[in-house]
What does this fold into?
Amino acid sequence: MKLIKSISKVVLVLTTVSLLASPLQAGAAPYEGYSYSYWGDSVSTPNAYTPAGTIDGTEQGIGKLLEPSDMYVAEDGLLYVLDAGNGRIVVFDQDWRVVREIRGFVRDGKNEKFNSPQGIYVTKHNHIYIADTENRRVVELTGEGDFVRDIGAPKSDVIRAGFEYYPIKVSVDHAGRIYVVGRGVFDGIIELDAEGNFTGFMGTNRVKFDAWDYFWKKMSTKEQRSKLEQFVPLEFNNVDLDSEGFLYTTTSELTSSDPIKRLNPVGEDVLRRQGYWFPRGDIYSMGSSESSLLIDVKVGENGVYSALDSRKGRVFTYDQDGNLLYIFGRMGEQEGTFRTPVALERRGDDFLVLDKAMNRISVFKPTRYGALINEANHLLFSGKYDEAEQKWKDLLKLDSNNEIAYVGIGKVMLRQGENKQALEYLKLGYDREYYSKAFGKYRKEIVREYFGTGMTIVIVLGVALVGFSFLRRRARGKVNADVT
Amino acid sequence: MRMLREMTKTPFYVLLHPFQGFWDLKYENKGRLRVALSMLLLLTVATILLRQYAGFVVNFNYPYDLNSINELQYIVLPFFLWCVANWSLTTLMDGEGKFKDIVMATGYALLPLILMRFGNVLISNIITTRESAFYYMIDSLSVLWFVWLLFIGTMTVHQYTVLKTIVTMLLTLVVMGIIMFLGLLFFSLLQEMIGFVVSIYNEISYRI
It folds into this structure.
């Protein structure tokens, strides 16, 4: 008994000590911020975003969410959550009050329900589009939940035989064109016109195979070939629209170099990849086990976009040029971690992540570090370079390894004509293109400054040399003359 | 003093007049083994300098990966491997060169590499990306010149015809590969053997 007492005493003391010793950061997160350097090494950074609560519906008095599959933030800030397990749509306002619940709709006097819907989209005019997956249709409702129309499987001659239509994600652009991501549809994104008629497939992923596979396929007989795995392109798994009507897509492929794509209206990938590494989540230099599996992409303001990794529960945010800005999140059971993250949304500067297994929405708010990056990016995007410079400088005080900040400052200094300092910053940020530009200007500066002096020295030296050798020759000639 | 002057002058003569130069090295006794070996040393130094101090626009080396010892592995080892392989081959193929001659010819042939690498260290620091083509041009030019000198050197030292020289040089590369293979085989077998002896020792020491 005494022993147990003393042991428990020791344990108590130890816990207290460890509690006191642990660094009590303001808004500590269950994960550590990191980023990738120019060399592809992961480097620690301050956390850009920290968890700020979870929403699971119980506090709002609507019962717990059940296997929610998707959500969407409308332009007026309302959040539409597709609560698939309960077969309803829940609409939250900015303060997490429930505005309304939509539990199906009335069509021709009959009640209809959703059957495990996977995707939701809300247009500017607050019309809701739902990818009603198992019912094989896309349903359009008004904001109040009244039935407008439903769009069934696309019909066309170009659609291959055996095509199964299970819409999982849906997006609608300004012109009313509807983009549907189908499960198992490797032909691309299904594009429908405003009336819901099939117009074509968009942006098919390219087939990937290596020469070795090709060799075996060539060598095998027809029967063997039919048993072999077919080379089919990978299917898209999510889609989002940016303000210009370009589609951002993700593909679940390990070790892919371009899992995120930005498709222009013709279906070409026009994503800018100017960063140190292509936007692809974690850099898997150590093998495919480190590779991310992206499941959702969300375009924010100023050309910034974020992708959600379903494998390690991380959110990667890139700027319009493809520079990695920050990473946060992880798998786990705590607040701010996920078990099965399925959807990512952005409301203002906050991030929302929907967890299908934990049946909740996690809210993330920017720290000072994250806010600085966002502000700097905003200033840069709107052309206020000088103000952005100040933000980058503040950022460097928090994280002196931030290479993007160095590049940002370097570019501003180059514009201001401070070439020598620009060189230093651009070198720290490994931006060879701009470094070279700054160096060219700096070289010109130096040459201009020292050209006069330099030329004078050269001419004087030249004259002196000629004169000296002339004198020496004469002197030698004299000596020779004396000898003879 | 005079000797030193001779020693520095000869390599440059060889550089510009390879036919006469390599002839003089061997038959007029103008070649010095010391010079050839210091060439090797200089090349190592030049390469280390280039990797460390080349200008930012052409320097893509990860500073943590730079290791001067590695240069030995990539320069000194291949050098001697070449000499040994060439010697073993040419003794069988009626070559007239002794091992010393081969080392000397190969060493003197390194001069363009040395000069241009030192030059590139300087040039790379005053060029922009747009002018980096010069850097790469000089780099490849130096390699071509080196190969040219090596070719003439081999031809002169062994008194071969052009075709035979080319064949010999290609075969030398093959022999280098074979030597490397045998070396690896030898070391891995040695490792196995040592492992075997150690395990026997351990076994016995546990029993006693």
Q: What stands out?
A: The helical segments of chain A are 2-21, 211-219, 222-227, 368-381, 385-398, 403-416, 419-428, 432-483. Residues 49-366 of chain A form a domain with the Neuraminidase fold (CATH 2.120.10.30). The radius of gyration of chain A is 31 Å. The CA atoms of residues 65 and 359 of chain A lie 5 Å apart.
